C-alpha cells in the first residue's frame, strides 16, 4: 500500500506552509494547511494526513509533554494544560500472569482531563486558533467532550458537544458541564452524533475536533513517540507489540503515523515497528470484523452495546487509516466480552492502576490473544490504557468490592473484622 509510505520533500510551493501540508491517503492530492477549513480530501472525500518537509529524529525532542515533540507537530505551541508525559508502568506480575516476557502499561488516564484526548486537543485547538474559527465542536462518547470543553475554556473559545443521551459516563459529563460546554444530548448513538456535527461543520457553523480532524491526530501521535522513548530508556529496546482499545481508530492511526515517521527519520528500523493490535468490545466490533474478513473497509454496525462506553462505536471514522496500520505492522484485532473487560479492569486496579472499562479492553485483548497463541511468550508488550478509573465511577463501583455497613462502635468493627 504505497499511499502509506511517508514522503518528505516539498510539495508545490503554493501548497505547503511552514513545511507542512495535508495529504489525501486515497488519491495523494496535496491540500494547503491553515487556509480553507477542510476535513476530507476536496477531490475524493478521502481521509487527510499531515505531512512535513522534514522529520525529526530522537535528538530533536526537548522539554516535557506533548510539546516536547513540537518539531513533529504542525504548529510550534498552543494552549496547554500540561498534557502528555504520562507514566509507563512496569508490570512484571501482570506479565507473568498473562505469559509474556515484558508488559508495560502506558496510562493515558494520567492526562489533565483523564484521557489521551488532551493530546489531540492541545494541538487541535492551537490549529483552530490559527484558522481563526469562532466555535469548536465534537460528537463524543464522553472523553472527547471533556477534553474539548477544558481546552476550549482554557483558550476562551465556545464549545458545543453532541452526546448520545444516557450513554455517557458520569465523570465525563460532569467535566463537560463544569468547563462550560454547551451540551446537546441526542436521541441516538455516537455515530448519529458524529453525522450531525459533521453536517454542522460542513455548513461552517462549527470547527470539528473529532479524530477525523488530521491535526488532532498529530497530537495523539505523541503517545507513540513518548511510549517508545520511555520503553527504550527502561528496557533498551522497542516493544514488539502495542495493544490498544479501538473506538474511532484514531489512536491506531496516530500510533502508526508516529512509527512510520520515526522509520522515515531513521530513528527506528523498519523491522522495529511494533505490531499494532486493536481491541474492540464484542458488542461494537466492526473493525475486528473487517480485519477477520480481510476487507479493506468496515461495514457500519447500527446497533452497538458495551460496558466500555468510550468504544461504543459502530462506524470507526478512521478505519481507512487503521486497517492498513494493523496489517502493515503485522498486528491483529480482537473482540472481547464485557466480563473479560471487567476482569482486566480489576487486574489492573489490583496492581494500583485505575482505568475505565474501555482502557481495560487492551489487557483483556492481550490475554485472549496470548491464550490463542497469537501473541508469543517471548514478546515485549505495551498495553495502552486510555482513560482514568474516575471517568466512570458507576462501572468502578460495580466491579469493585461492596462497602460493609457497621455501627459506630469499636466492638462491632472488631467483630466484623474477625469474621
Ligand atoms: C476515545 C477513547 C477510546 C477510543 O480511541 P480511538 O482513537 O477513537 O480508537 C478508547 N478509550 C478511551 C478511554 C477513550 O476516551
Ligand atoms: Zn483524495
Note down, in words, how this protein is organized:
By secondary structure, the chain is α/β, with parallel strands linked by helices. It folds into two domains: 88-113 and 217-399, Rossmann fold; 117-216, Rossmann fold (3-Layer(aba) Sandwich). Helix content is 37%, strand content 14%. It has 13 helices and 13 strands. The strands form three sheets. The chain has a six-stranded mixed sheet, sandwiched between helices. A four-stranded parallel sheet has the order 8-7-6-9. A hairpin with a 5-residue loop joins β1 (20-24) and β2 (30-31). α2 packs across α6 (214-235) and α10 packs across α11. It is globular, with a radius of gyration of 21 Å. It starts with 19 loop residues before the first strand and ends with a helix. The model has no long low-confidence stretch (mean pLDDT 96). The structure holds pyridoxal-5'-phosphate and zinc ion. Residues 24, 26-27, 29, 41, 43-44, 46 line the site of zinc ion. Zinc ion binds next to loops.
Q: What is the tally of helical segments?
A: 13
Helical content, roughly? 25-40%
Q: List low-pLDDT spans.
A: none
Q: What is the CATH T-level topology of the largest domain?
A: Rossmann fold
Strand arrangement in the largest pleated sheet: 4-5-13-10-11-12
What composes the largest sheet?
Answer: 6 strands, mixed
Overall number of structural domains: 2
**What is the terminal separation in angstroms?**
64 Å
Structural class: alpha/beta
| Average of pLDDT | 96
Cα Rg: 21 Å
Ligand inventory: pyridoxal-5'-phosphate, zinc ion
Identify the overall geometry. globular
Number of strands: 13
Q: How much of the polypeptide forms β-strand, as a percent range?
A: 5-15%
CATH architecture label name of the largest domain: 3-Layer(aba) Sandwich
Secondary-structure element sequence?
EEEEHEHEHEHEHEHEHEHHEHHEHH
Amino acid at each position: 500500500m504505497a499511499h502509506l509510505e511517508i514522503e518528505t520533500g516539498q510539495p508545490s510551493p503554493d501548497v505547503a506552509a511552514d513545511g507542512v501540508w495535508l495529504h489525501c491517503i486515497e488519491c495523494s492530492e496535496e491540500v494547503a494547511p491553515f487556509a480553507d477549513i477542510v476535513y476530507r480530501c476536496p477531490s475524493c472525500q478521502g481521509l487527510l494526513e499531515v505531512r512535513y518537509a522534514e522529520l525529526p529524529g530522537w535528538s530533536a525532542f526537548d522539554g516535557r509533554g506533548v510539546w516536547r515533540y513540537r518539531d513533529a507537530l504542525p504548529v510550534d505551541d498552543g494552549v496547554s494544560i500540561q498534557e502528555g508525559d504520562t507514566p509507563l508502568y512496569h508490570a512484571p506480575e501482570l506479565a507473568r500472569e498473562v505469559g509474556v516476557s515484558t508488559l508495560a502499561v502506558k496510562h493515558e488516564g494520567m492526562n489533565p482531563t483523564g484521557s489521551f484526548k488532551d493530546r489531540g486537543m492541545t494541538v487541535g485547538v492551537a490549529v483552530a486558533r490559527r484558522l481563526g474559527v469562532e466555535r469548536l465542536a465534537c460528537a463524543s462518547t464522553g472523553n472527547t467532550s471533556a477534553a474539548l470543553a477544558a481546552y476550549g475554556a482554557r483558550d476562551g473559545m465556545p464549545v458545543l458537544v453532541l452526546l448520545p443521551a444516557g450513554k455517557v459516563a458520569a465523570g465525563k459529563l460532569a467535566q463537560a458541564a463544569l468547563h462550560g460546554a454547551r451540551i446537546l444530548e441526542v436521541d441516538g448513538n455516537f455515530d448519529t452524533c458524529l453525522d450531525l456535527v459533521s453536517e454542522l461543520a460542513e455548513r461552517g457553523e462549527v470547527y470539528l475536533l473529532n479524530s477525523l480532524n488530521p491535526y488532532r491526530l498529530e497530537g495523539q501521535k505523541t503517545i507513540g513517540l513518548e511510549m517508545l522513548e520511555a520503553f527504550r530508556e527502561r528496557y533498551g529496546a522497542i516493544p514488539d507489540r502495542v495493544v490498544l482499545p479501538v473506538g474511532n481508530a484514531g489512536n491506531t492511526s496516530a500510533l502508526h503515523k508516529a512509527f512510520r515517521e520515526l522509520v522515515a527519520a531513521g530513528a527506528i528500523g523498519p523491522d522495529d515497528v511494533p505490531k499494532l493490535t486493536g481491541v474492540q468490545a464484542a458488542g461494537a466490533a466492526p473493525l475486528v470484523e473487517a480485519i477477520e474478513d480481510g476487507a479493506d473497509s468496515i461495514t457500519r454496525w447500527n446497533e452497538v452495546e458495551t460496558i466500555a462506553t468510550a468504544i461504543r462505536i459502530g462506524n470507526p471514522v478512521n478505519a481507512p487509516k487503521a486497517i492498513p496500520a494493523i496489517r502493515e505492522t503485522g498486528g491483529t484485532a480482537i473482540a472481547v466480552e464485557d466480563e473479560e473487560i471487567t476482569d482486566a479492569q480489576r487486574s489492573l486496579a489490583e496492581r494500583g492502576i485505575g482505568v475505565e472499562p474501555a482502557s481495560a479492553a487492551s489487557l483483556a485483548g492481550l490475554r485472549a490473544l496470548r491464550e490463542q497463541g497469537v501473541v508469543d511468550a517471548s514478546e515485549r508488550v505495551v498495553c495502552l490504557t486510555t482513560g482514568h478509573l474516575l471517568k466512570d465511577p458507576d462501572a468502578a463501583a460495580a466491579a469493585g468490592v461492596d462497602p460493609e455497613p457497621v455501627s459506630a462502635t469499636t466492638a462491632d468493627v472488631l467483630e466484623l473484622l474477625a469474621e
